[in-house]
Amino acid sequence: KRLFSENCVTCHGTKGQGDGTFANSLMIPPADLTALSANNDGVFPRNRVISAMDGYARGKHFSGAMPEFGRKLAGSDVLIESGDGVVTPTPRALVTLAEYLESLQGT
């Protein structure tokens, strides 16, 4: 929750619904982070979320306002399976932030 408050609330709002104080000034509105599972057949897209926050995987729906947090939150790494049995070192803070976002689903 601390990482979310420090890095995401301005755009995504305190509840993660895309209604932060800076949201209206962005050309592309911030995502409603409470609907990630609902928009993915009820499954939280953990690896996609981590990749997006990291800056590794960004689609057209991302604006330049979304920081790449991979470097900003770098530090100790944990190994996560990123798909197809591939294990990737990932900043622990990004994994922790993704876990918090998962806890917001459906709120």
Name the descriptors.
107 residues, globular, single chain, alpha+beta
Topology:
Blueprint: H1 2-7, H2 9-12, H3 46-54, H4 69-72, E1 77-83, E2 86-91, H5 92-103
Antiparallel strand pairs: 1-2
Helix pairs in contact: 3-5
User: What low-confidence regions span 5 or more consecutive residues with pLDDT below 50?
Assistant: none
Counting DSSP E segments of at least 2 residues, the number of strands comes to 2
Biggest beta sheet attributes: 2 strands, antiparallel
Decide which structural class fits the backbone.
alpha+beta
User: What is the radius of gyration?
Assistant: 13 Å
Shape field: globular
| Percentage of residues assigned to helices | 25-40%
> Please, what is the average pLDDT?
85
Helical stretch count?
5
- How large a portion of the residues is in β-strands, by DSSP E? 5-15%
Strand order of the largest sheet: 1-2
CA-CA gap between termini: 15 Å
Give me the strand/helix succession: HHHHEEH
